[in-house]
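Researcher: Please translate sequence to structure tokens.
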Amino acid sequence: MQRRLFIGAVGVVALVATAATAGAPTATADAPTPAQVRLTATIDAILADSRLDGAQAGVVVVDASTGRTLYDRNGNRRLVPASNTKLLTSTAAMELLGPGHRFTTDVSGAGRRRAGLLSGNLYLRGGGDPTMLAADYDRLAAQVAAEGVRVVTGNLVADDTRYDRTRLGPDWTWDDESAYYAAQVSALTVAPDTDYDAGTVIVHAAPGGTAGARPEITMTPANGWLRIDNRAETVATGETSISFEREHGGNTIVVTGQIAVGDAPESDWVTVWEPTGYAADIFRTALQRHGVRVLGRTVLGQPTPDDATTVARHDSMPLAELMVPFLKLSNNGHAEVLTKELGRVLSGSGTWAAGLSAISEYVGDSGVDTGTLRQRDGSGLSRRNLIPPAQFVSLLTEVRAEPWFDTWYAALPVAGNADRFVGGTLRSRMRGTAAADNVHAKTGSLTGVSSLSGYATDADGHVLAFSVVLNNYLTSSVKGLEDQIAIALASYTEKGTSSARLAVPTAPESPRVPDGLECSWVKPAVC
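Model: Translation complete:
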């Protein structure tokens, strides 16, 4: 329940005293100003909300220019950060890979070429590109045909050896396996859309022509890698309730439920088992479309020989551009690919362990005390990630000096901005408040976990770095409390204020999202 509280000077003093005995805000080296006392009391009142009864809350606010701590409650407590983990991954990628880094997918021939005949294998080598669309594989096939290749006597070999074969994060929950936000990670993959949800397919169900008929099921992109088991029914009337679920260990998608005659088609994003085979299937079909016949079979996971000759190549957008869909939409797959790419580029090992080591080294050099945290993946899906809010704020403060900061800052979600690729996961939050088009911050959501860390420019023009991490609550959402804190920071001023009166800001209601999911993870997106 949203509440507006008006507390007099006596109430403010009582709140601050209570917080001191509870170990809530940590005292700063200098005596707090009246404005800081007011801010402390405001945030204390927000965190006193009954939705946080029995929960854990960590909140830190620092003036990014002066380094002065304006608020600190449990700043050193290790909490599950959810997608705020992407702050570490994305900054490390920008620094260590560079804003201009691109992923390359190429096609090579190994064997003798005479006229239009390649006597040997054709190799499709993946470079980890999470933005590869079916159209990009079609363009690669067109390049192969333009090079004069018409018949390949050997196999089509899908080379995904840039990264290891561990497809899922070590701590991800089994029931997320077919959910698109937990897609398998491969150096060779396909995205079905320009959100670049690599390793997924979009399944569509349209009503059949008459009641009792099976719905018409199609996929984007069309492919032969996945199989549909259609158990759904078209009904004359009634509520549409179509479900798509991929069976464990394979690529059979079971469609159940019903859809009424005349209703609009239903769609959902489903992960693919073994994205390397998915990419090879899309590419092989494209080769056939362009008149290139491969006589052999499709082979997965073998490396391209050193003496193979490149006949086609596709380079991704630069990393600076990829940051936008990655951070705005909180794309987990991008985070994990970047983690493995960091490992590959820096140590020659495309593994989670090598990538996480690179991230740790970078953030440690950027002022983060890595001895106080644990990072288990790049995206934050693991519940074994533990990061204190104070360490997020340390990173947020230090990276402002990086030459790529402005690009990275612009890629963070922007509160209340309705443009999906500006507002991102914050586009429906804090509209019409002081935080709108002001707060740039990364959201985070798992069941019982919510976080918001980033920057707010206060009413005096000072940039405040902040982190709010909330754990172990039982209510469906505490996003409104994060928003209230962000609005209070955007409204903060040292000019002409006293601690005599306090008003907790109200926050517009956030969109309803299933418990534990980012709003952009709900397809079709609600933000």
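Researcher: Any highlights?
Model: Residues 332-347 form the longest helix (16 residues).
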